[in-house]
Amino acid sequence: CPNRQEIQVTLKQVQKLLSAHEASCLQSLRTCPKLDEPINGRKLGKSHRVGHEVHFLCDPGYEIVGSESRVCQESLTWTGQQPTCRGLHFNECASSPCLNGGTCVDELNQFSCVCAKGWAGETCQNECELFHNGPAGKLCLHKCVNTPGGYRCSCPAGYNVTRDGRSCKDIDECATRQNNCTNDQMCVNTYGGFQCVRVDCPKIPHATYVKTSPMRCERNPCPLDNKACSQTPTSFSYHHLAVVSNLSAPRVMFRVSALRQLGDTLRFTLLGGRQARHHFTVQRSDRQTGQLMLVNPVQGPTALEAEVEMSELERRVQLGRYITKITMFVSQYEF
């Protein structure tokens, strides 16, 4: 059996162990005041008991001011100071976002513009740009010109601004005599301009032609024994069309008809080169009418020519050929 001295030593050791365990239990029940998360930041660690540590982090774009970590002390107080998160400062005006003489005011993570007189908007932008980039669509048919505090629409040469202030109306230079066509020329009004045209009867071997109207030439009578003359076109007629650029297709551009028919058959044919055939075709609309069809849009400015031949036959024998020449003046603009 252990002697008395050994028993006393053992009891003292047990007493120390119990005291330490009791102190640990008491310490675990003691807590420091609750710490709040900083605005624009967060706190790591939920325990506020004595001896425990809490850490703090800031959101991107912010820096910590104060203690990054705090420890709960025996005095039930925290070490360090309560941290805050301060925004990192960028010069928001460095890119000169304010337009048209506006003054930029740098603020925390943002900016504001003090606009010059006559300007408004978030960045003092002009009315034309604001409307063009917005959901409402195009403000002017052709061009928007910004003015202090507003805007105005302008039109290209050959057009006037309409009463609504937005659209463009073609000026008829022929009707208003704003052209330089000579007496032997005919003025043809086009969209945005005019053309001076002169019609001369064609010179064809074996036949002669005479002008019977400003836009028509007819063949003089052929001698009875001159077969080559009878095979030449009976007449030439000339027509001029004015259209806008990129006109939608297909669509009928011109119709050729016979006022009276002597034979039993009329045949309509498109003459001309590759360019004419790329943009046009000829279709029969009824027994006595053929129509010139635009099959592909045309980008202006340009002029296209097409020839439609109407042949009159009787039992497959040609009685006459009638040539219609159409010149189409295409504008630079789509209005």
Secondary-structure map:
Layout: H1 4-28, E1 41-44, E2 53-58, E3 62-65, E4 69-71, E5 84-87, E6 103-107, E7 110-114, H2 127-133, E8 143-147, E9 150-154, E10 159-161, E11 168-170, E12 186-190, E13 193-197, E14 209-213, E15 216-219, H3 227-230, E16 235-243, E17 251-257, E18 265-271, H4 274-279, E19 280-286, E20 289-294, E21 302-314, E22 317-330
Parallel strand pairs: 16-22
Antiparallel strand pairs: 1-2, 2-4, 3-5, 6-7, 8-9, 10-11, 12-13, 14-15, 15-16, 17-20, 18-21, 19-20, 21-22
In short:
This protein is mainly beta. Helices cover 13% and strands 39% of the residues. The protein has 3 domains: 4-87, Complement Module, domain 1, CATH 2.10.70; 103-170, Laminin (Ribbon); 186-330, Sandwich (Immunoglobulin-like), CATH 2.60.40.
- Range of strand content: 35-45%
What is the count of helical runs?
4
Could you name the ranges where pLDDT drops below 50 across 5 or more consecutive residues?
A: none
Output the CATH class name of the largest domain. Mainly Beta
- Indicate how many domains the architecture comprises: 3
Strand order of the largest sheet: 14-15-16-22-21-18
Mean pLDDT figure: 87
Oligomer: single chain
Helix coverage percent? 10-25%
**Broad shape:** elongated
**SSE sequence, one letter per element:** HEEEEEEEHEEEEEEEEHEEEHEEEE
Instruction: Tell me what the CATH architecture of the largest domain is.
Output: Sandwich
Strand-pairing-aware structural class = mainly beta
What is the CA–CA distance across the termini?
122 Å
CATH domain topology of the largest domain:
Immunoglobulin-like
